[in-house]
Amino acid sequence: MASTEAVIQASGLTKRFGQLTAVDDLDLRVRRAEVFGFLGPNGSGKSTTIRMLCGLLLPSAGEIEVLGCQIPRDAEALKRRIGYMTQKFSLYEDLSVLENLQFLATVQGLDKGAARQRIAELLERYWLSEQRQQMAGTLSGGQKQRLALAGAVLHKPDLLLLDEPTSAVDPQSRREFWESLFELADAGTTLLVSTHYMDEAERCTRLGILDAGRLVADGSPRELLDALPGQPLLIECAQPRQAQRALHGCEQVLAMAQIGAALRVMVNDETARQPIEQRLHAAQIEARISRTEANLEDVFVAVTRQPVQAPA
Prior knowledge:
Elements: E1 6-17, E2 20-31, E3 35-39, H1 46-53, E4 61-66, E5 69-71, H2 75-78, E6 82-85, H3 97-107, H4 112-125, H5 141-153, E7 159-163, H6 171-186, E8 190-194, H7 198-201, E9 206-211, E10 214-219, H8 221-226, E11 231-237, H9 240-247, E12 253-259, E13 262-267, H10 273-282, E14 287-291, H11 296-304
Parallel strand pairs: 3-8, 3-9, 6-7, 7-8
Antiparallel strand pairs: 1-2, 1-4, 4-5, 9-10, 11-13, 11-14, 12-13
Helix pairs in contact: 3-4
GO molecular function, one term: ATP binding
Domain ABC transporter: 8-237
Keywords: ATP-binding, Nucleotide-binding
């Protein structure tokens, strides 16, 4: 259960690369033992924000406090208290699973006896005991992911930052990985996870949605659904692709997606139904239009205002 104590506090956080503003006046607060999810389109500033929070990237403006440390001033002191896991496997592929963990233990300055015990514990916890002598480069995607997580938590960090850690693994491995994350949260570790997957976003205790470097939504999944600025409609018809073409350019339509033989349409409000019916009628498309339950993808589309694409 997350407490009210802030582990991460950022105010006015900004990062510019020349003329490009990657992160724009971002305010962020993450509480202890919280599983905070970062959502956002590619290029929205998720990775840049995470790198600034852990001291790997200097901000152009703003203030950051992580675990009581002022960043970037106290970045060196913070290193031993955080874990960082990237999208790309970053351990040594020509070392065995065991050798990778032993090397990381040395880098972290762990006592040999304590390191031996901790490594044995992590090999068992993350189902890597049988692969301990296997070269890391020959592991499956899910095994590499578990090894990277073991390396990130080897020194028992208070805060774990994960930058799209499940982008290259299968659904079963993702599910197992998230069970491991919840175990860490239950033990008191605070987690900040960036992801593209809506099913993962639903698992988070709180979400921050980034768009063009700005935080455009912040709250629990339930709070974000309740505050959805719009409503989803389900259009059932025999020609969903034709219906999508007919509705392209309709100003009341925020987004469209074909779901099986139906069309899911995000609209501004209830007044959008009439112009939608008129457009479908003009295209000689018979359809049944009904309201449907909102999901986090609807929230994501609504707050980031992703442009509606015409079907090919």
